[in-house]
Design goal:
Layout: H1 8-14, E1 21-29, E2 35-40, E3 51-52, E4 55-57, H2 64-76, E5 81-94, E6 100-111, E7 125-131, H3 144-150, H4 152-159
Amino acid sequence: MSVQKLDSETLRKHKGVSFTGVGTVFFCHDGHGNFLMSKRSKNTRDEQGKWEIAGGGLKWGVAAEDNLRREIKEEYNADAKNIIFMGYRDVFRELEDGTPTHWLILDFVAEVDRAQVIRNEPDMSDAVDWFTLDTQPSPVHSQHSTLMQKYHDQLVEILSR
C-alpha cells in the first residue's frame, strides 16, 4: 500500500491543529549565565512580536536530538554542545481565531558558542538577543512562564556553572 505524503506547507498548517504536533524547544546558553531568545516576526503562525525560547517542529524520520541540532543551526547558525534533555510538556492553546491546538514539546538545553550566533532566519524572527534569568524581555510567548517555572531549578543550576 502506498501512502501519499503531504507537502511541507500543508503539513505545517495542520501540525498541532489536525493532529498533535511534536516540537523540540531549545534553551540555548553561552556557558556564562546568558541565554538566547528570539522575537517572533509577523510571518510566524501566531504570537507575533513576542520573545521566545526558540524551537521547531520535529521532522518525520529525524531523531529528536538531531532535529534539535538542525534547528539550532538553522535559526542561530550555531553548533549545539552539552545537550541536556529537561523533559516534555503537553501544550494546549488556541490560535488567535480560536482554533484549539495541541503540541507535545520536548524541552532541551544546549550550550552554543556566542561568536557563532546570528539571526539566521530574518523572515521568522525580528531580533535575537542574550538575557539572564533576572533580565528577560517583554512581551514573551504565552508558554514562556510555564517553561521557566517548570525548569527553574535546572536552569539556575546550568546557568550558574
